[in-house]
Amino acid sequence: MRMVEWPPLLSRRTALTFAGGALLAALPFPASAMLPAARAVPSRGFNLPLWFEREDGTAPATATLEKLRQSGFKTIRLPVNGDLVSTGGTATLNRIHEGIAELVGHGFAVLVDMHPSADLHAAFKSDPASAAKQVVQAWTALRPVIADLPASSVFPELLNEPPMEQAAWLALRQQLAETLRARCPDHTLVWGPARFQGIWELLDAPPLADDNQIAAIHYYAPMAFTHQCENWDASPLARIANLPFPATKDTPGVRDLVSRLRTAGDDEAASLVEDELSAPWTAARIASDFAGLARWSTEHDCPVMLNEFGVLNFCVDPESRTTWVRTVRKAAEASNVGWTYWELDQGFGIIKSRQSVDGFDSAMIAALLGGEGLP
Asked: Please, what are the domains in the chain?
């Protein structure tokens, strides 16, 4: 998922180097915590970006983590920048190790998500073989951290939104799985389909040849609704505002929006709204999408989770936002699909700041947790 309104994560790096150095100190976990992970799927979670994606990333306050856990959240998906991992050395690896250990200590399951930087995305376009090697190097550096953490609580995710064609990704996915398995035989591996990790892309992807895996997809449909007023590129989504949910092309608010866009000469944005609402976007449509996901899971005997979904909170009406989030969450749970919301405290967020216990969005948290109140 692209982020909003933040400075670049890292300066340009022309190459990744292997991070050598001393072994990380072992955590004081009891032996029972190191038993092989079951096939339970992490759920009831949120994404926590901008901590290990940059050298000066911001850690959440202990009190905030405690309140989130007490509210009913059980999982944190933690994006990690492979560039930083491979160039930061032992100090960076220790910092990641300590951060994940803290989250586990609060009772969270943690998905450690290898999240490509803009530089790595560019590398996949210009030199795919070199880019693939960089991801392998990043996991080679990071896997001792994962190996030292309990398999029942920590889940390595091979690569977020793999920026390549599916055939190339399947080959790299196997290589990454083997890289991790060399040091982490009991951890559940998480992977998603190329190239957007879309629910539709998984249907043509086979599972890993591994007995301990979870397939992970993202869901932001319809984009005209979930990304309206986005501000990080020149997409027509930036010019769409106040689109409701649920909606059809004949919903008065939709007709008014299309009319305003056409009057302003913005045929591109108007056509995007019309195309995305050519069929109704309702709870039934979303439930159908997740029912298809459940069929894939059953057919392949592979657990599935939804580890990104969300609505940008720039110009959407609050009721439509909570309705969509609740609808997607319920559809996932009805299909035995675990979930982590994108994300905690930025443009899609559910709290104002990871540094404060104030500013929790009670309506959004209720939509996610099924009406359970704050502590």
From this structure: 37-221+282-369 (3.20.20.80), 226-280 (no CATH)
